[in-house]
Amino acid sequence: MSNRRAGANRIRGPHSALTDFLAANNISAAQIRDDYERRQREAAQGSNAGEGSARQEQDNSDDSDDEDAALAQAAAEEASKKAKKRKRGEKEAIEKIKKVKAAEKAKGSKKGKKKPKRGDSDEEDDDDYDDALARNMYKKAKPPPGQFEHCEICSKRFTVTPYSKDGPDGGLVCTPCGKELTKEAKAEQRAAIKKPVGRKRRKVESDRLDGLTHLGSKSLQQLCIEKVAQHHHQIDSLGDLPGSVYERLSQIFSKKRVMNPKTLPVFLRPDLDKIAIDDAAYLEVDDYKQIFAVVPHVEHIVLRNACQFKDEVVEYMLEKCDNIKHLQLYAANLVTNPMWQELFRQAGPRLETIQLQWLDAAFDDDTVQEIVEHCPNLKRLKLKLCRRITEETVKLIPGLAKLEHLYLQVSKHQEVGSESLVSLVTTIGPNLRTLSLEHFVDADDSVVDAIHNHCIQLKKLRISENDYITDAGYGALFTEWQNPPLVFVDFNSTRSLEENEPAQAIGLASGAFAALMNHSGSALKHLDIASCRHISKACFMEIFDGATQYPALEYINISFCNSVETTIVAGIFKSCPALKQLVAFGCFDVTHVVVPRGIALIGMPTAQDAIEQYGMGIGVEEAIGRMVAVTG
Amino acid sequence: MRDVKAGSSEYITLVSNDGFEFKIQRSSACISGMIKRMLDPNGGFSESTTNVCKFSEINGIVLEKVCEYFYYNEKHKDSRDVPDMDFPPELCLELLMAADFLDT
């Protein structure tokens, strides 16, 4: 306003009748020009900043910016409030309208300015409409089709057609430039499209099966760690974070398969005492050397899928690190037998943990002999899927007097007689906290009898994939056993695979299961009795009768126990107040289960439902009430 | 304002090392194990009487995000498949350290 008046008393040059007329009506031609130029400038700036073309055509008044922002915010809030489907529909509608508008603009037809009718975003449309109107008013008239025009982008002369595209500044562009523009627009659109919903849903299900979901939001640490993993390529160092965070980040990096030579240095800090890499498949000799060079005081080494872990790496490790106490190496198949032996000879006296898995090429009984000779302080030993070890290993292990935790799994075609296992349990049994015997197919009742007689400190017991030990044998184990109640029990797949089942029940059946729950029910946290097919319905009913409580039980796997049915599941819900997960694959008599709050039931065989059902905020009592209503 | 009603006021104040104060609902702030312990009347910390927690390690920007998280958490307490809270990536390491410190 002020500059209009300012010019009034000055000496002016010659001017036209129109200018006079306008001045008389308090309109300044100079200001109109200035405004126009300012708009042009703003538009140019807008396009430099990389904004969408719609934004550039903003109204000249400043407050419309604010208005837009407010509107956008309001729209966003509104959108977030609505249900997903509704939201998607709405967004599609907006997209469509935008497309239509763009098309109309291209044609430059006056008709196109007709306001589309829509319920809840009238205001937004109004705004667009005004913008477009304002733009049209000030814009230079477009040349009609057939005339020549200079392209706004490349400044070439071209013939205007009805299909010529609008340039970013409102002019027209030639055909090649137009194509480029559409390409860019499409790329933008593609980027804006979200991942398919199906994949997200599958991810949710997968997380649930992994036991990762819980009520409410994730912890802030979890959110941050995920974000860090997302931006892994930009991180130089993690700084002074606690070791537990390092470990979790390393796990996520491994899971996302971004643990590679580039990201590895992030995890190395001289003062760390633990290196845990769950998937070291991308790491090579130099990377392993780097680990031991940067972190020489490491005590605890976990390297899984360490395919490139070679002899020279072991040599380097022995040279640099003289503090290793815990060693976990999976799939380190390039280490030769002599080197394994050298490793245990040199590092042996300090070693407390040795966990080796997936070793096919080397690591044989002679190496185990070296372990027994040179690792007197070994407390934890895990040998799983090591193809070259035989019954000889089972005979050697009793030489490890301080052993507290033992995990053994011999490969499929090795026969290990019961006598070796019995002598193993007899010798080191009294000291054992953990005993895990997987796939000792030929073990018989004498082994469980030895466990009964010699193990008095066990907390975790696993005997799986066996088809000789009888129900009576297991029953005797848990009857009047000196051992305190077990915390972790796994007897999965103990059953006979013969076609004609022997008269005496093989594997953990009714009698033994009752004895087990009687002995360990008070402390038991983890119970796996998958494929123990001889446990009867009556036995389940008696154990999970709803009145007897198993206060610690959090995880139960009753997959392929044929006698389980809906009532038993209800009984389990009632008897296990701490239950978090119940796995019931292949229990076909379980139907119409209403799952109470906080419990995940996995494996229900109804195709339409999610594979896992979740309690949605109802208590155990109400859930059972509803189940009775459905089934009764 | 602070000493209106010591010990049981509905809102508490979190102070960052650069002097920003955030007034936040007590129940939300107690999602953090650390703040919960600071404010526990039986803990005997001065915070439990003044209802003001000072964090000399956390700056205002990070603390603001932390407060935002407290309310985000409170809002989604009983829902499943909660959308992740968004924050700028450059903040995530500092925020991670704060989260670790606050036991959140």
Report mean pLDDT of chain A, rounded to a whole number: 80
The percent range for strand residues of chain B is 5-15%
- Report how far the terminal alpha carbons of chain B are from each other: 27 Å
- Oligomeric composition of the shown chains: heterodimer
User: Which strand order do you get reading across the main beta sheet of chain B?
Assistant: 2-1-3
Largest interface: A-B, 28 and 24 residues
Structure summary, number of beta strands of chain A: 16
Q: DSSP strand (E) fraction of chain A?
A: 5-15%
Number of strands of chain B: 3
CA radius of gyration of chain B: 14 Å
Walk across the major sheet of chain A and give the strand order. Answer: 3-4-5-6-7-8-9-10-11-12-13-14-15-16
Largest sheet of chain B: 3 strands, mixed
Number of DSSP helical runs of chain B? 5
Under CATH at level 1, the class of chain B stands as Alpha Beta
Q: Look at the structure and give the mean pLDDT of chain B.
A: 84
Summarize the biggest pleated sheet of chain A.
Answer: 14 strands, mixed
Distance N terminus to C terminus of chain A? 83 Å
Helix amount of chain A? 40-55%
Overview in brief:
The complex is a heterodimer of chains A (632) and B (104). With 632 residues, chain A is of the alpha/beta class.
Give a structural overview:
The complex is a heterodimer of chains A (632) and B (104). Chain A has 23 helices and 16 strands. The radius of gyration of chain A is 37 Å and the shape is elongated. In chain A, 42% of the residues lie in helices and 10% in strands. In chain A, helix 12 (285-294) runs parallel beside helix 13, helix 17 (418-428) runs parallel beside helix 18 and helix 18 (445-454) packs parallel to helix 19. Chain A has helices at 2-6, 17-24, 29-48, 53-56, 63-81, 84-107, 122-138, 175-192, 197-209, 220-230, 243-255, 285-294, 311-320, 337-347, 365-374, 391-396, 418-428, 445-454, 471-478, 510-520, 537-543, 566-575, 620-631, and strands at residues 148-150, 157-159, 274-277, 300-303, 326-330, 353-359, 380-386, 405-409, 434-438, 460-464, 488-490, 526-528, 555-557, 581-583, 600-602, 612-614. In chain A, the strands form two sheets. In chain A, strands 3-4-5-6-7-8-9-10-11-12-13-14-15-16 form a 14-stranded mixed beta sheet. With 632 residues, chain A is of the alpha/beta class. Chain B is an alpha+beta fold. Chain B has a single domain (2-102), classed as Potassium Channel Kv1.1, Chain A (2-Layer Sandwich). Chain B is built from five helices and three strands; from the N terminus they run E-E-H-H-H-E-H-H. A three-stranded mixed beta sheet of chain B has the order 2-1-3. The two termini of chain B are 27 Å apart. The chains are: A alpha/beta (632), B alpha+beta (104). The A-B interface holds A 204, 213, 215-221, 223-228, 230-231, 234-235, 238-242, 245, 614, 616-617 and B 66, 69, 72-73, 76-82, 84-85, 87, 89, 92-93, 95-97, 99-100, 102, 104.
